[in-house]
């Protein structure tokens, strides 16, 4: 008899979750789905459908509509039409809808879980215990933000129509990460699920109707990459939110460059998983299970690079070997399965190929004894560890997106950080140590948006999630995530109103005094119609020119300022600078790509130390700048008059405003605090504002001094190192400023000034792989070029349309956000 | 103070196993101090252990039958009498009605519990009642449950129970030694108990609910194994907190660590508060996942329980007959 037999082996046996609810639901739709536009289902205009496959048995589940350009267009129209009403809907009413959605997700949680598992191949344990509960949690949490929007986000307004493209690894969860904040902040949505996993999004659409969500607020257009491209390229969309590969993220970055579309990208990763010798090693090994053997390793933030301290490496490998032996791979609907099916045959092939290449390169393959006895007929891959690999190995550099861990050793904490940061990515990191001093020290040094201490892959709606470096930008979750779906409520006069495309932005009440003075000064200083960019010229007799204004009567050699030293331009060329009456008022160096290279090198060398300086120390330096600027106020005012022809009153006002701006920047240095998020664990989730790193700044023409003080001053105060390219029209305020820098204890390399042709230098900065962000004030073409070029290392961009435009500078809250990135550090505790 | 046998200098740190029993090692602080426990991570593993694994239908029936084989059927009440102990022993001999076993396809299955566990007073009663069954009698000892009686009395209590025929002795440790970090004292105490046990197998109750931290649980486990415990056991059932999966996880990992280090296999016994069939399965899953199949067997795994058998029987009835059961159909223990 069976029971007698089992008594001898004590095997687990099968424990299948019933597929019936999901199959019934699919059958109700006769196995074929339409697209969801304006609250109604319809066939795709292409009249084309494709198959959705269950990867656990490679059998067809359903027919999914291939959405066309026309369908996307209709969806955008519906969303646009709905936006007016939805954005005007009180926060409390939006909260009720989101709350109802959360409730509905919970009420139908089993159907969602089974459907997701069948469509995606992930174990039912995960969809049941992780994916779907987190979806409900995301809607609950953002129902709260909708409720609080009128007070907590009162200076912000929705963007409009948001295009959202989500991946196949967490289909419904990623949908919730996209839709919940968008709706909470009053946007309407056109969402495209991944073509491999559309079904739960379609079930979700039914829930939107069942809770009575107004038609057009959520539109779901299924389809492949072409459908996604139609969303990205659609001119009626105000923002694109994308989660997926860095490769596609790069395409989207280029495609949206210069369009003014706001963009958030959550991309790939190769996250380090660091185990120190004082860790609870058994728990760390269990952490590996949750890191890389969760969701078949198809997790953007998966800890896929094990860094283990050399002295305990063999011990840890031995434990890993024993642990993987216990893993169970198989039918994802089985409740006792750890690793289900890889999402499809293509992905499986890629994993197989990458592992094979790793082995060819010399890696040692560690797999369970049963690795060759996987279930037949589906997309299965065993848990795998590769040892004998190094930073140069392909399996260490490339994201494998499978249950494959690459393991290396380190000797010291410093080396652990070096190895951890030796990657193009920066999504997440995990640190195991029982020493809180060590763990927090490492956490602050790792370049990643999320750091888990003694835990891994913890996700929650209350904590921001997003990348550094090529892992993308923008945050999802937490208050920091709301800014991705909002813009400042006081758009600049004449701007298109899209956040990020600049305009004037005289929005800051905090700058009231300076804004009023600056605006008056600005009116006074209408620049001449001379639109051309100054050309580099052969030396001319500057000394013979009549000095403009009384203060500047000695010829001065305006050099560049790199690494704390005055530097001559590499090319040995100068540019003539003319005053408002086309009188020659000076020369500046014609900086070229090598000057930028040198300046970025200097900035990079300085960035780490400056970021570690205490906030008080940074504040003191910036206050000191203000003090020294004040001491030379008359000189700087004269320079403004000389350059722009403004009145003495305006010039004095701008200098005063600049001093005030530096005070504001210094004031914020020790007050731009992070948060502690209320995530549902016994832990503190620290949302820390870290400096962006190295910022390339191309300054606007208006208010040459005030712009420097406001933009560069704030970035400096937040701990960044900068390469500042002054306005080519009015660069002399910047070149005068380095004498202030030299006398103000500004650390060498943190504030570099390279003069020259704006767009030429912008190109080098935007392409530079060691620049973390570029702030560009300039022409529309220049903005496009900067954003296109930024796709190289996926650096952040902030474009301001300030070339000769009227208006004031961005509000300080916006500058602070652009100068920093949020790192969430999860610190569980328990005696 | 009982004399503690000192291992002579130069003697092996790990004496050869005695009939598969853990002979203990000399006192070694290194593995005790090396214990690293991250409570949040332990709790996370404990919480997901039984969401990752489950047994259904035939497998569940087989696992539950197996669970019965590992139960130390226990009565430790102030109002125990010869009569109640005899009744318990009868239940131990026939924990599940033979008809039910037959209906499960096991008509000839001789199912009995792992042991019967009583106070010293009833050892002889139980030995007599269980004669010929092959079921060992376990006695709680050494001033159970608080363990605060005079040390010579503790030794004498062990010896008296062994004389009365107890094959297993469940001793309690002095929690004071753990709470004050006096590991040497703990080692000496447990080692003396083990010597007093002689041929009887010794289970060391570390009273997890009174040790304050998971780290203390791990360290106490390590010392008790060094001192020669055959089993380490969670609780007396009288502490405010009984057996937990998290505490048990720390203990079984200590067992694994000790085994890897010495080659000696030490058993594990959760006790206190384990009343439902589902709980029994949770602990079996813990053993299978963290220690492996051998640690599912009664020589290395016991569950201390009294009411558990009846819930298991109910579940088996449901499995066999497809309808929910009533306690009135099950024999009292």
CATH architecture label name of the largest domain in chain A: 3-Layer(aba) Sandwich
- Sheet-strand content of chain B, in percent, reads 5-15%
Cα separation of the termini of chain B: 39 Å
Strand content of chain A: 15-25%
Derived from helix and strand composition plus strand pairing, the structural class of chain B reads alpha/beta
Integer count of domains of chain B: 1
Q: Which sheet architecture does the biggest sheet of chain B show?
A: 8 strands, parallel
What is the gyration radius of chain B calculated from CA atoms? 19 Å
- Can you write the helix and strand succession of chain B as a string? HHHEHHEHEHEHHEHEHEHEH
Largest sheet of chain A: 10 strands, mixed
Domains of chain A, number? 3
- The share of residues in helices of chain A is 40-55%
**CATH topology heading of chain B:** TIM Barrel
CATH superfamily of the largest domain in chain A: Aldehyde Dehydrogenase, Chain A, domain 1
Which strand order do you get reading across the main beta sheet of chain B? 7-6-5-4-3-2-1-8
- CATH topology of the largest domain in chain A, by name, is Aldehyde Dehydrogenase, Chain A, domain 1
**Count of helical segments of chain B?**
13
Low-confidence stretches of chain A: 492-537, 539-548
CATH class of the largest domain in chain A: Alpha Beta
Gross CATH architecture of chain B: Alpha-Beta Barrel
